[in-house]
Amino acid sequence: MAETDLAGVSAEDGAASRVRGRVLFHVALATSFAFMLFALLVLERLGLPQVLISLAIISVSLIVFVVASLVAATMRLTDYFVAARQLPSLHNGMAMASDWISGSLFLGLAAVLYTQGASATPYVVASCAGLVLMAVLFAPYLNRSGALTLPDFLTTRFSHRAVGGIAMAVIVATALPLLAAQFILTGFIAANFLPLARETAIVGTASLAVIIALLGGMRALTWSQIAQYILIAVAFLLPLAVLSMGSDGQPVPQFALATVLSEIGRIVGSDGPAAGATAAQGGFDLPIMLCLILASASLPHILTRFLAAASPSQARRSAAWGLGFVVPIVTAAPLFAAFVTLEILLGIDGASIDMVPDWVIELGSKGLFTICGAPAISAEAIAQACGDGTITQTTLAMSDVSLDPRAVVLGLPAIAGMSMTLEALLAAGAVAATLSSAASLLLTVANTLCHDGFHKLLAPRAPAAARLFMARILLIPIAALTAYVAQQAVQANALPANLLPAFWALAIAASGLFPVLVGAIWWKRTNMSGAVAAMFCGVTVAIVVLATGGAVDLPFADAGMLPLPGRTVPAILFGLLAGVCALVAGSLVTSPPSQEARDFVTMIRGGTKPPTARDRAV
After folding, report:
1. Please, what is the average pLDDT of the chain?
2. Contact 144/599 with Cβ under 8 angstroms?
3. Strands across the sheet with 369-371, in order?
4. Residues 34, 40, 42: CA angle, nearest 5 degrees
5. Rounded distance, CA 229 to CA 231, Å?
C-alpha cells in the first residue's frame, strides 16, 4: 500500500513538475517576444520596411506555436485524446478562451458593433453566456463520465453504438464548415494585412494546424493555445491601450469607452447615427440572443475540453477561467468600433477630397473603403465617383463613406496613424485566433472519426498504437480537403457568402447536440430511441428550414437587425423544438432505459463514485 502511495505521489509530482516547466517555458517565450516587439519599434523608427516587420512578427509567432506543441509530444492514447485528464483549470481555461475567441469573434464582434451599434447586444451577451451555460449544464458531468469524445459519452450513456455514430456525423457536419470558415478568414487577413497570398495563407494554416495536433494531440494543442491566447490578448488590447492613453489617459481601454462615445456624440450631434451604425436604433432581439447562446453552448470542440480537465470541479472552474479570459476581449471590442468611428469623423467628415488621409487610399486600394459607392483608390477616382470630378472643392460627408466591417479591427492602426509594428502585431493576433480554432476543430473531427468510427464501429479490437496512428493520419486528409474547399470559396471574393455554411453549422450543432446532451444528463427517462429521434429530427428540420430559402414564410425568418444569414434563426429555433419534442416522445413511447443507464446518470451527477478506471472507453 505504501509503495502504491509513493508511486502515486511520485506521478503527481512529476506531472506538476512538467506543468511548472511548461509555464516557465511560456513565460520565457512571452518575455522574448516582448523584447522583439521593442526592438522592432526601434528599428521601425530607423526605417525598417513594413514587409520585414510583418514577416518577423508572424514568423516568430508561428514558430513559437509549433515549438510549444512539439515539446508536448506523446505516445499515450489518453494523453493524445484528453491530455491524460491532468489539465489544471487555469491552463485549460486559457486554452478554451483561445479556442472560443477564434477568428470569428476576433474580427466579427467589433464589425457587428460598428454596423449595428446597440442592436448588437445579443452578440456581446452570447459571447459570454454560452460558456456559462456549458459550465452549468455539461462541464462536470462530461468529465466524470470518463469518455474520450462526445459520441463516446453518448454511446456509454445509451449503451448503443448507433447513438454515437449519429452524434459523430452531427459533429463532423458541424466542425468542417467552421474549420473552412477559419481558413477563409486567414486568407482574408493575409491578403489584406500581411505580405502573403490568400492561397498560401490557407495552405499554411492547414499545415500548421496539422503540425500542432499531430504529435501531441490535446496536450500539445493546449500548450500551443496558451501561447496563442497570450498573443491574441496582447495584440487585441495593446493598440486600444495606446489610443485610450492618448484620448483619456486611461491605461485600461475599457474605461475610455464613455469618453470616446461622448466625443462621437458631440461631433455627430443630432444629425443621425455615426459611421456604420445604421441599425443602432433597433431594439434588443431576444430570439437571436437565445439562438446564439444555445448554438455556442453546443460547439463540440469546446465541449471536448471539459473531458480533459483534471476533475469534475476543475472542469467547471475551467469554464470560469475561460470566461475570465474571454471577457477582456469581448468588453474591448466596442472600443474598436468607437475609435474607428471617431477617426473617420475627424479625418473625413467635412474634408475636401484632396485632404483625405493616406489610409483612405490604402484601404480603398484593397476594396475595404468606398466613397460615394466606389473604391477609394485615388483622389481622382473619389472625385469622379462623387459627381463633379473636382478634387479641391468637393466636400465629403459621413453619408458618402463606407468602411468594410471586416477591416474595423485590423484597419484601426492605419486609420489612427499608429505604428506599423502594432498593425503587424494585430494581424498576427488575428492569425493566432484563426489557427487556434482551426487546430481544435481539426483535432476534434479526427479524434471523433478515429475513436467513434474506426474503433467503435469498424475495428473494436484495434490496439492503442493502431488507434493512435489512425487519429494522427486522419488529420492530413481532413485538413487538405477543408483547405481545398476554402481555396475554392475565396476565389469568388465574396466573404459573407462564403461564410454561410459556418452559420448553418451553428444551426446543426444546436439542433443536433443540445437536446440530446441535456436529456442524457438531466432526464433519466431519456433512452436510446429518444436520443436517436432527437438528433435525427432536430438536424432534419434545421436542414429543411435552411434549404427552403425564401420559398416558405416562417416566423423569425428575418429576425431582427443582426446579420445571421441563411435563415439561421428559424433553423435553430425549429430544429431545437423538433429535437426536444422527438426526444420526449421517443423516450416515452418506448421502453425505459436500463438500470445500468440510470446508474450511469446517477454516477456522472455525483450520486456515486465514478468507476476506478475512468478511461474505460480506452
Report:
1. 85
2. no
3. 374-375, 369-371, 401-403
4. 110
5. 5
As a whole number of angstroms, the distance between CA 124 and CA 215 comes to: 36
What is the 3 state secondary structure string of 575-593? HHHHHHHHHHHHHHCCCCC
Cα–Cα distance for residue pair 519/526, rounded to 1 Å:
6
Q: Is the dihedral of CA 533, 536, 539, 545 positive or negative?
A: negative
Write out the H or E segment, with its range, that includes residue 402: strand 401-403
Between CA 296 and CA 421 the distance in angstroms is 34
Residue 466, Cβ density class (10 Å: 0-12 exposed, 13-18 middle, ≥19 buried) = middle
Q: Are 321 and 90 in contact (CB under 8 A)?
A: yes
Closest CA to 84 of 14, 184, 187, 175: 14
pLDDT band per the 50, 70, 90 thresholds, residue 22 = low
pLDDT for 224 equals 93
Question: ∠423-424-428 over CA atoms, to 5°?
Answer: 120
| CA neighbor of 104 nearest in space, from 119, 137, 126 | 126
DSSP helix/strand/coil, 401: strand
pLDDT by residue (tens digit) across 416-432?
888 888 999 999 999 99
The CA distance from 558 to 561, in Å, is 8
Secondary structure of residue 383 in the 3-state scheme: helix
Q: What is the pLDDT of residue 355?
A: 81
User: pLDDT band at residue 211, thresholds of 50, 70 and 90?
Assistant: very high
Q: Summarize pLDDT for 133-175 with one digit per residue, the tens.
A: 999 999 999 999 999 999 999 999 999 999 999 999 999 999 9
- Per-residue pLDDT of 327-377, as tens digits, reads 999 999 999 999 999 988 888 877 778 788 888 888 888 888 888 888 888
Cell of 355: 485632404
Q: What's the grid cell of residue 70? A: 512539439
Q: What DSSP line would sit under 334-362, residue for residue?
A: HHHHHHHHHHHHHHTTT-BGGG--HHHHH
Q: How far apart are CA 101 and CA 237, in angstroms?
A: 14
Confidence at residue 391, expressed as pLDDT on a 0 to 100 scale = 67
Characterize 284-314 residue by residue with b for buried, 16 or more Cβ atoms within 10 angstroms of its Cβ, and e for exposed: ebebbbbbbbbbbbbbbbbbbbbbbbbebeb
How far apart are alpha carbons 279 and 261 in whole angstroms? Answer: 16
pLDDT tens digits along 532-570: 999 999 999 999 988 875 444 444 444 433 445 557 888
Q: Which residues, at least 6 apart from 435, have a Cβ–Cβ distance to it below 8 Å?
A: 62, 65, 182, 186, 205, 208, 209, 212, 228
SS3 178: helix
DSSP letter at 458 equals I
As given in the structure block, the three cell numbers for residue 441 are 476543430
Residue whose C-alpha cell is 477591416 = 407
What's the pLDDT at 14?
55
Half-sphere exposure of 25 (CA within 13 A, CB side): 18
Grid cell locating 609: 463514485
DSSP state of 549: T
Helix (H, G, I), strand (E, B) or coil at 403: strand
Q: Which residues of 379-391 are buried (b: 16+ CB within 10 A; e: fewer)?
A: bebbbebbeeeeb
**C-alpha span between 298 and 582 (Å, rounded):** 18
Q: Which residues contact 27 (CB under 8 A, 6 or more apart)?
A: none
Residue with cell 516568430: 60
Rg (alpha carbons) of the chain, rounded to whole number: 25
